[in-house]
């Protein structure tokens, strides 16, 4: 997991060849003014999901992980807390290959708050529980990047 300011995203482009395309997209688009929905940047290898998610409590937010994709999550409208547990510490659970997701029961080991203007990167080895907020709705962006 990586947590940092969007001003520093350029420092992470060496982690995945598609991160350069993410950086270019962010620099050339007004992320806060886009309608909800998906935009495919490089087919299924790189796309962005503009989302308005329901704010959840820590008890409601389920840990999830992905085998094929990396998430770059960027809150837009308000701070968002995200749970984190290393996947090696999570039990074996069913994997939905069509949706590239596994869900886990129970609380996360740690919680971090991601402010607007910052981002969190979750790799396949990172269990994460997004959308924790006292706000009823969270405007956010999730880049899905092929791992």
Report on this structure:
It is a single chain. This protein is mostly beta strands. It has a single domain, classed as Jelly Rolls, CATH 2.60.120. The protein is built from one helix and eleven strands, in the order βαββββββββββ. The protein has one helix spanning 19-28; strands at residues 2-5, 37-42, 46-54, 63-65, 69-75, 80-86, 102-104, 110-114, 118-122, 126-132, 137-146. It has a six-stranded antiparallel β-sheet with strand order 1-9-5-11-3-2, with helices on one face. A three-stranded antiparallel β-sheet has the order 8-6-10, with no helix packed on it. A two-stranded antiparallel sheet has the order 4-7. Strand 2 and strand 3 form a beta hairpin. The protein is globular, with a radius of gyration of 14 Å. The two termini are 13 Å apart. The mean pLDDT is 97.
């Amino acid at each position: 997991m990586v947590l940092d300011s969007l001003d520093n995203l350029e420092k992470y482009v060496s982690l995945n060849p598609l991160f350069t395309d993410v950086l270019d997209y962010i620099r050339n688009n007004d992320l806060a003014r886009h309608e909800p929905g998906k935009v495919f940047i490089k087919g299924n290898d790189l796309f962005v999901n503009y989302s308005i998610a329901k704010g959840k409590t820590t008890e409601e937010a389920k840990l999830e992980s992905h085998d094929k994709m990396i998430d770059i999550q960027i809150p837009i409208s308000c701070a968002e807390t995200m749970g984190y547990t290393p996947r090696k510490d999570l039990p074996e659970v069913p994997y939905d290959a069509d949706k590239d997701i596994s869900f886990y029961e129970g609380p996360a080991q740690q919680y971090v708050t991601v402010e607007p203007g910052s981002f969190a990167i979750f790799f396949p080895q990172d269990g994460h529980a997004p959308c924790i907020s006292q706000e009823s709705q969270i405007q956010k962006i999730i880049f899905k990047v092929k791992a």
